[in-house]
Structure formats: C-alpha cells, structure tokens
Amino acid sequence: MTGLKIAVIGGGSSYTPELVEGFLKRYEELPVSELWLVDIPEGEEKLRIVGALAERMVEKAGVPIRIHLTLDRRKALKNADFVITQVRVGRIEARIKDEKIPLKYGVIGQETNGPGGLFKGLRTIPVILDIAREMEELCPEAWLINFSNPVGMVTEAVLRYSNIRKTVGLCNVPIGMKMGVARLLGVEADRIHIDFAGLNHMVFGLDVYLDGQRITEQVLDLITSGDRSGVTMKNIVDLGWEPDFIKGLGLLPCPYHRYYFQTKKMLDEQREAVKKEGTRAEVVKRLEEQLFELYKDPHLNVKPPQLEKRGGAYYSDAACSLIRSIYNDKRDIQPVNVRNCGAIASIPPDSAVEINCVITKEGPKPIAIGDLPVAVRGLVQQIKSFERVAAEAAVTGDYHKALVAMTINPLVPSDAIAKQLLDEMLEAHREHLPQFFKHRSFVR
Ligand code: G6P
Predict the structure, then answer these.
(1) pTM across the whole model
(2) Known catalytic residue: 399?
C-alpha cells in the first residue's frame, strides 16, 4: 500500500495538533506517509513550534509519518492526495477588527456571521481560489478539504469560480451538536444520529435518533428544560432557548442560530463581554499565546487538553473521518458542505449546502431531504443569497456587490448602516483586499 501525502495550508495553526492526533488515531485505516505543514513567512515561528510538537506526537505513536515544514506552498501541493486549508488571512488582528468594528454600529461582531463573516469571506476566497488553481496544476487528483471560514461562502466560491470538483467544506458544528445531545442524554455519541440539513453555521437537526429510535421531541424538551441548552460551543454564549419557540419550530437549532433568533440579547451580551474580556478574537489571542507556550515544551508529545477551550473542538475527528471514508470508500453518513444537487429543493442545485452525505471514494453524495420546513426556509435562502453575492464580490472586487451583500445580511439593520460599515471595514482591511482597490471602484 502506498502512503498518502497530505498538505495542510495554514499548518502553523494552533489546531494542527488536533489534526495530527486524528491521523495518528486512524493510522491503520489511513496510511499517511507524508504530512506537509505549510505557512506564510509571518507564521514561520508558529509553524516551527507546531511542527516540532507534531514530530514528537508521531514519534510517540511510533508510526512512519514524515512531517515536512515549509513556506513553499507549491512544494507541499505537488502530488498531494488531500489538501487541507485552514488559513486565516490577516491573522487574528483581522478577526479582532471583524468583531469590533460592527459593535460601534450596534451590529453583532462575529467572525463568520454578519459583517465580520462577509469580510472574512472577502479576504479568504481569493486565497483559496489561488490554492485551487495551483492544485489544478500540481495535484489535479487531490481532494480539497476546506475548514477556512466562512466555510459555506468559501465552498460556494470554490464550486462557482474554480475548476476543482473534488472539494468539501468542513465544520465542527454538526459533530458538536451530536456530542451535545449525547451529553444531555448521558449516552455514547455513536448511538446518536441526527438528520442535518441547511447551510454552514445555519444547519438544523431535522430529526434526532437514539439507537435508531426517533427522539426529536424529547431532545427539544431537554434543550429547553433547564436554563441552558447543553448543545453549546466554546465560542458562543448559551443564553438558553424560549421553550415554546423550539417546541413550535420542531427542529434542533445550531448554536449560531442564536445570532438570528436572539439578536438583541446576543448583541447586549457581546457588548458586556467586550467590556470585561475583549472580543472573542482577543480572548482567542490570549488562549493561543498560552497554547504556543505549552507547545514549546520539548516534553509535550500529545495534544494538550487546553486546546479544547477553542470553539473548533472535534475538527480533527470531522476531518480525519471524512478523509478516511473517502480513501476507504466507507459509505458512512457524515454532515459536510457540498454541492446541493437537488438535496434541498429550495436551494439552487449548484449551490453549497451543509447536509448529511454518504461518503464514497467519488466524494460525498448528499442525502435528499425534500425541503426544509417552511418556517426556516426563508432565512436559509436569505443566507444563501448573502453567501452568493458575497462570493461574487470577493472574486470581482465590486464595491456595489459588497454593499448589497452587507445590506441583505439579516444582522445588518439598514442600507445606510451597511454602507458606513462597509466603508470603514474596507479601509481597515485594505491590505488584505487588493481586489477592491486596484480598480478604484470604491470611492469614499
Ligand atoms: C466553531 C465554529 C468554527 C470556528 C470556531 C471558532 O467551532 O464552528 O467555524 O472557527 O468555532 O472558535 P474560536 O475558539 O476561534 O472562537
């Protein structure tokens, strides 16, 4: 059996030890022989630290995986079997701006939703499309597995604006929801199945099963019976749910739905939190500094538990299970971001959706659900329109498209605020948005 070559773009990320752990756990089924960690020059120090930890983890596991560290993306991509992208264009400083600037205008500051999500998309999409173009040349048979946020918008852009067909967007929210339900019920997660459908960070559990038995109503009662839902993420405050709303909805919401169904409460809470500890990005910056101090310890040879304070817990499980199932043609069911292909009737067939898929060697095959319940269909379509217009703006650098994307986002209250926000954020992120400045289409 020949070993696999995996390239991780953004390899210096603090999440990389999770990924390494995931590959080590699955080595028997997924014989990785080369793991290439790539970063940009500004990330070199982190890359060295994470790379050394990865080497110690591999040595402890005693498996023949070779870790390569490089700043040369092309070298890493050459003949890769799987390319994992986990980039943060503009690094944490850009995320701080994404989360802070909207608050001045009374709008939620969040890295994947609202204005923050739009700007993260505008910065990230051109970089991912560059990588896709290089893959066409250097590893045309490889799979592109993207975790870079906003995953829905990025997947939409790759499907629409690149020639790469073997692409999947990946998120930990569905697996986090499954783990949360298992915790609430006090059972092992593998006994739980959830029918997921929607978009990234806008996904619903249509039904929940325990050992094949439908238990949706019991779970909805449980998530609303205390003052906390139990289905949580470290990066999103849990303000509980209005029980009668959830009962009426009949769906398991994801933690990101709080931004849409509890907008005012979330905004107030965020303003308070910012006064105390700063934005989530600032909290993460401090957490990352601590993590990298731990990673430097030459005796550390496992993923430290402190990494679980990050919102991205279980990413490695999602990513490595996906890669394992593609490689082995497992035909198991996993929720991922792929082309809809008619699986959700009210979303265009060529758009990206987050949905349960059968994972085969030919890629994920979405499981058709018919349509989303009418109560949430409009919101999901609205977010899809936002993602599409935003992706087009990212590719073209068209100011007016960006303004339309900002204005149609449900978290932005008006066209006038959208324009002020757009102008200030374009200026703040100028360095990472060359597409908006080269044609001078943006006039203040
Ligand atoms: C969740 C989301 C991810 C996001 C992460 C942020 O896991 O699904 O898409 O990247 O939270 O977590 P952080 O610890 O960086 O705030």
Answers:
(1) 0.96
(2) no
